[in-house]
Amino acid sequence: MNTHTADAPRSPCIDICVLDDGDICVGCYRSASEIAAWTSLDAAGKRRVIELALERRRAAGALL
């Protein structure tokens, strides 16, 4: 079920769509499965994906 609302976050895509060996996008740090599921996630699901991507970005040293 597609439950988009006005408070749903925008996609974190920055148009650098390349997956690394772990199937993580080097641009937005979402996994391939998270990217594929994005349009069907509700606002809370999208926020969780963004949190996970931020954790990956920090772990990679790409964010201070």
Protein architecture, described:
With 64 residues, this protein is an all-alpha fold. The chain has one domain (15-64). It is 36% helix and 0% strand. It is built from two helices and no strands. The longest helix has 17 residues, at 43-59. It is globular. The model has no long low-confidence stretch (mean pLDDT 91).
Give the arrangement of secondary structure elements.
Layout: H1 32-37, H2 43-59
Main pleated sheet: none
Order of helices and strands: HH
Cα shape: globular
Overall helicity: 25-40%
The structural domain count equals 1
Say how many strands there are: 0
Class based on secondary structure composition and strand pairing: mainly alpha
Low-confidence stretches: none
Query: Helix count, per DSSP?
Result: 2
Q: Which radius of gyration do the C-alpha atoms yield?
A: 12 Å
Relative strand content: under 5%
The termini sit apart by 36 Å
Integer average pLDDT: 91
Brief synopsis:
The chain is mainly alpha-helical and 64 residues long. It has two helices and no strands.
What features would you highlight for this structure?
mainly alpha; 0% strand
